Amino acid sequence: MSNRHLHQHLTSFNLFFLLFLFSVLFSGCGSDDATKQLSAEERYELGMKAFKDEDYLAAIEEFKVVSIQYQGSKVVDSAQFFMAESRYLHGEYILAAFEYDILIRNMPSSIFVSRSRFRRATCFFELSPKSHLDQNYSRKAIDEYQAFLEYHPADTLAPLAEERIVELNTKLAKKDYESGMTYMYMEYYKAATYYFDLVLDKYHDTQYAEPALLKKTEALMNRKKYADAKEAVDKFCSKYPTSSMKSNADQLRIDIETKMIEEKAQKQKKLEPIKDTSKQVPQSGS
Asked: Cα separation of 144 and 124, whole Å?
């Protein structure tokens, strides 16, 4: 091999060796970055940055790492709470309710417990549909708000919880009242009475109790249960003396009393003895 070729060969070899060395060094640095273990606090801070930037999916991933891998950390309850908050603000109400429940059950001494109870109730409140649809979430929300009030009666959010319970109960009352009205239109008066009674028994403090009592009176009258109808209309007039439906109630009372008089007269007529107009047969030897 000539000196020229030998020099070229050595130059190529040296270049290859240098490139190899650099690649090893750089790959080593990259490997260190990739395998670097972040602390719970660092993960939490990354999650909070994403949360404040409203990047809730990224926040959830960071908070999830803290809650799973650093269960003994002092920031684990904060991470659990803000993971639930991220799901809530992202509109994932079922998953958010689940995450809040984890904090309530597993971290009962956390400062976030009261807010988690309220938020869990609010998840179901957000899922509560219009009155004509199934109201399972409405009932669940009421139960959760009542639990919040039971555990945290002096919390600043207690008045709002009470307001929402009233709102949800009104929705449930509306559903039962509308069901009763549907059966009234169909002339299924027994079924209508059942739903009006539900309103009166469960939601007597809502705006639907007043019309439900009057409609119950109408349903009972149509079922010819005049004594029960009279009792219902008397109760209406006593309980709602200034009602805008008072004139309707007064007319119903007159109609019921008229029917009761007619019914009594019919019963008396049936009880009257039948006169024997046949001639008596003369006894023999008389």
From this structure: 8
Number of domains composing the chain? 1
Inter-helix orientation angle 136-151/158-185, to 10° = 150
How far is 215 from 177, CA to CA, in rounded Å? 9
Which of 48, 36, 112 lies closest to 63, judged by CA? 48
Query: What average pLDDT does this structure show over 75-98?
Result: 98
CB 99 within 8 A of CB 84: yes
pLDDT tens, position by position, 205-233: 999 999 999 999 999 999 999 999 999 99
Residue 29 tokens read as: 């640095």
Neighbours of 196 (CB within 10 A): 30
Question: Environment class of residue 204 by beta-carbon count within 10 Å: exposed (0-12), middle (13-18) or buried (19+)?
Answer: middle
Q: What is the CATH number of the domain that holds 98?
A: 1.25.40
Going by C-alpha positions, the residue among 124, 120, 90, 91 that lies closest to residue 103 is 120
The one-letter amino acid at 160? L
Tell me, yes or no, whether 154 lies in a domain: no
Q: How far is CA 68 from CA 29, 42, 89, 99, 238, in A?
A: 28, 15, 21, 12, 62
Q: Which 8-state DSSP code applies to residue 278?
A: S
Q: Which pTM does this prediction carry?
A: 0.78
Domain range spanning residue 69?
A: 39-113
Is residue 150, in this structure, part of any structural domain at all?
Answer: no
Q: Which of 92, 119, 91 is nearest to 103 (CA)?
A: 119
Give per-residue pLDDT as tens, 52-83. 999 999 999 999 999 999 988 999 999 999 99
Is 273 within a domain?
no
